[in-house]
Automatic annotation (TrEMBL), chain A:
It catalyses: (2R,3S)-3-isopropylmalate = (2S)-2-isopropylmalate. Catalyzes the isomerization between 2-isopropylmalate and 3-isopropylmalate, via the formation of 2-isopropylmaleate. [4Fe-4S] cluster binds at residues 340, 400, 403. The keyword DNA damage does not apply. The keyword Isomerase applies. HAMAP family: LeuC_type1 (MF_01026). It comes from the Bacteria. PANTHER family: 3-ISOPROPYLMALATE DEHYDRATASE (PTHR43822:SF9), HOMOACONITASE, MITOCHONDRIAL-RELATED (PTHR43822). Transmembrane segments: none annotated. Residues 7-450 form the Aconitase/3-isopropylmalate dehydratase large subunit alpha/beta/alpha domain. This is 3-isopropylmalate dehydratase large subunit.
Automatic annotation (TrEMBL), chain B:
It comes from Zunongwangia atlantica 22II14-10F7. One of its GO terms (molecular function) is 3-isopropylmalate dehydratase activity. Heterodimer of LeuC and LeuD. The gene is leuD. Gene3D superfamilies: Aconitase, domain 4. Residues 1-122 form the Aconitase A/isopropylmalate dehydratase small subunit swivel domain. It catalyses: (2R,3S)-3-isopropylmalate = (2S)-2-isopropylmalate. Its EC number is 4.2.1.33. This is 3-isopropylmalate dehydratase small subunit. It comes from the Bacteria. Pfam families: Aconitase_C (PF00694). The keyword Protein biosynthesis does not apply.
Length: 460, 203
């Protein structure tokens, strides 16, 4: 039978299928962090169940960590306690932890790929919905709840129903100034936030084939924002080149042999999908969101739709926008470049290339947060830190930061923030904050102009 | 896990679509390392204003509505995977959430905590909202065995779907952890097979 990429990886990991029920799916790699793991460790302890495969787990501290003075004890007592429990739990159970200050520390979905932990053909889970990011490598990766974290601890397996298959094709050539973030915001704006529920989404077409690994990660990252459990892209030379030579990637001959296997990981011609959508790259322009879910997106020069249901009215009143309004020239006091969607080196290169030689507008607080220590080091090596500093941007230490505002990096009530993160829910970036999702390029241009601007005119 | 068979109770309506887990339990309350105490922060920023005063027109604060059934708008539980959302609903006292659509991860988290997500048609959801607007003391019966939700006054009902395996777990109070641990031998065999295949591939 003809199989999709998704089927091939899934089927290779089924330990057993329960009649009339879910599959027992084997998990190759489990990633954990401080926020969704403590209750799972407690549950195991209470039931006196040992961690079954500690060598298949890697831990990091990211959600709840400060982005300044990481060498000092964490000020917030609850956060400090949560981080301490993570260290203790990892130590007691022989789990590798890249904690705060470790050279490999970073946001879980940034550090695992850059260490070569993420590889084609693997099944990967983490107690975080944006685990879909790792699908960029042609892996099945998805977010799980804490009860499921406990299940994987106990058995390295999960009981899951096999999702249906969805394919999103984008073909053609992207216009200048249109980035991977714009592509995924466009797709979600067209399909809505629950069109993917029950599905795993494969992204296909030359737009994704021509994308860098960083770009593919940005796209797969936001699969969950259209409700899909995960997204994935067939591995190719770009993938192999990225993985090769990284710390935990297979080496030498083993790499070549595995590569031969990875090359079989593509959807067979004629394989069937339960649902399929196609878009033209030429139709996509730089995107922003105007509402309180990621599906409420328009092109930056567009107008807020006039037609809308009850929830649209609620969202618009929260955002302080009117139907039919254009957001061009709307003053913006905060921008955030960071989060597991857009905090890789390419994102900062993109922002820096726009900012170079310019200054941020006076009214703007510009927060730049790298996704990992390695990205932070690379920013310095490439001298991007100078570009940001000279332009008046604040460069912080790595972590989730203002993406979910669990630490001190919060957007004040009522303020707009053009953010490269993935969620514009009410209060996501701090109580009463108003988030406008966009690409790093759009965020950089907003910071320079002090307002939302059609920067594409000035690109040469 | 607590068993669930049938429930008959009044309900609280929350007619908002796309309710995400950041609203159900905001991120700043995720610093706890145990499962207790999330109920008081359920829908925190919708229930209370900046000064901590209850928001009057929010249905959870209105005396006329009570009960262990929450009836919510389409696409409930989207966003973050935080299981804290299910813990908060459970701790607040809800045992059933009714909507016309649930986000995948939330649905799984709810089922793993004995909180029953009941997915009904959009038309039936409208009828439920209407019924409760007409009479806030309207009672609903949720029968898991027969997979049926019924409005007691009118007798109107609809069947709902649930994974047969999950249904058995809920009715008996089993959870997945015990089941998976009982499968460790099969899992070890799978690992051996996987290692052999990998070795064959790289030889
Ligand atoms: S950066 Fe944001 S979305 Fe990504 S893992 Fe951290 S909190 Fe979640």
């Amino acid at each position: 039978m003809k199989k999709t990429l998704f089927d091939k990886i899934w089927d290779a990991h089924v330990v057993e299928s329960i009649p009339d029920g879910p599959d027992i799916l084997y998990i190759d790699q489990h990633l954990i962090h401080e926020v969704t793991s403590p209750q799972a460790f407690n549950e195991l302890k209470e039931r006196e169940i040992p961690v079954f495969r500690p060598n298949k787990i890697v831990a990091t501290a990211d959600h709840n960590t400060p982005t300044e003075n990481q060498h000092l004890p964490v000020k917030d007592l609850l956060s400090r306690k949560q981080l301490k429990e993570l260290s203790q739990n990892c130590e007691e159970n022989n789990i590798t932890l890249y904690g705060l200050g470790h050279p490999y520390n970073g946001i879980v979905h940034v550090m695992a790929p850059e260490l070569g932990i993420t590889q084609p053909g693997k099944t990967m889970v983490c107690g975080d919905s944006h685990t879909s990011t790792h699908g960029a490598f042609g892996a099945i990766a998805f977010g799980i709840g804490t009860s499921q974290v406990t299940q994987v601890f106990a058995s390295q397996c999960l009981l899951v129903e096999k999702p249906k298959r969805l394919r999103v094709n984008v073909n053609g050539e992207l216009k200048k100034g249109v980035t991977p973030k714009d592509v995924i915001l466009y797709v979600i704006s067209k399909l809505g936030t629950n069109s993917g529920t029950g599905y795993f989404c494969e992204y296909a077409g030359d737009v994704f084939e021509n994308m860098s690994m960083e770009g593919r990660m940005t796209v797969c990252n936001m699969s969950i924002e259209m409700g899909a459990r995960g997204g994935l892209i067939a591995p190719d030379q770009t993938t192999y080149d990225y993985v090769e030579g990284r710390e935990f990637a297979p080496k030498g001959e083993e790499f070549d042999k595995l590569k031969a296997y990875w090359e079989t990981l593509r959807t067979d011609d004629g394989a069937e999908f339960d649902q399929e959508y196609s878009f033209d790259a030429e139709d996509i322009e730089p995107m922003i969101t105007y509402g309180t879910n990621p599906g409420m997106g328009i092109k930056i020069t567009g107008a807020i739709p006039v037609e809308g249901g009850k929830s649209d009215a609620k969202a618009l009143s929260y955002m302080g926008f009117k139907p039919g309004e254009s957001l061009i020239d709307k003053p913006i006091n905060y921008i955030f470049i960071g989060s597991c969607t857009n905090s890789r080196i390419e994102d900062f290169r993109m922002a820096a290339s726009y900012i170079k030689g310019k200054k941020k507008a006076e009214n703007v607080n510009a927060l730049i947060v790298p996704g990992s220590r390695q990205v932070a080091a690379q920013i310095q090596e490439e001298g991007l830190d100078k570009v940001f500093e000279e332009a008046g941007f604040r460069l912080r230490q790595p972590g989730c930061s203002a993406c979910l505002a669990m630490n001190d990096d919060k957007i004040p009530e009522g303020e707009y923030c053009v953010s490269t993160s993935n969620r514009n829910f009410e209060g996501r970036q701090g109580q009463g904050s108003r988030t406008i999702l966009a690409s790093p390029l759009t965020a950089a241009a907003t910071a320079v102009a002090g307002k939302i601007t059609d920067f594409t005119k000035s690109l040469n | 896990m607590e068993k669930f068979t049938t429930l008959q109770d009044t309900a609280v309506p929350l007619e908002v679509e796309n309710i995400d887990t950041d609203q159900i339990i905001p991120a700043r309350f995720l610093k706890a390392t145990d499962k207790a105490g999330f109920g008081e922060n359920l829908f925190k920023d919708w229930r209370f204003d900046k000064e901590g005063k209850p928001v009057e027109d929010f249905t959870l604060n209105q005396d006329q509505y009570s009960g262990s059934i929450l009836i919510a708008g389409n696409n409930f539980g989207c966003g973050s995977s935080r299981e804290h959302a299910a813990w908060a609903l459970k701790a607040y006292g809800f045992k059933v959430v009714v909507s016309s659509y649930f986000a995948d991860i939330f649905k799984g988290n709810a089922l793993n905590n004995g909180l029953l997500p009941v997915q009904v048609s959009p038309e039936f959801l409208d009828e439920l909202f209407l019924a409760i607007k007409k009479d806030n003391k309207e009672s609903f019966k949720v029968d898991l065995e027969n997979q049926k939700i019924e409005m007691l006054s009118s007798g109107k009902s609809e069947n709902f779907a649930i994974d047969p395996y999950k249904k058995t777990c809920l009715i008996n109070g089993f959870d997945d952890i015990d089941f998976l641990v009982s499968k460790l031998d099969a899992i070890k065999k799978f690992e051996e097979k996987q290692t052999q295949m990998r070795e064959a591939a790289i030889q």
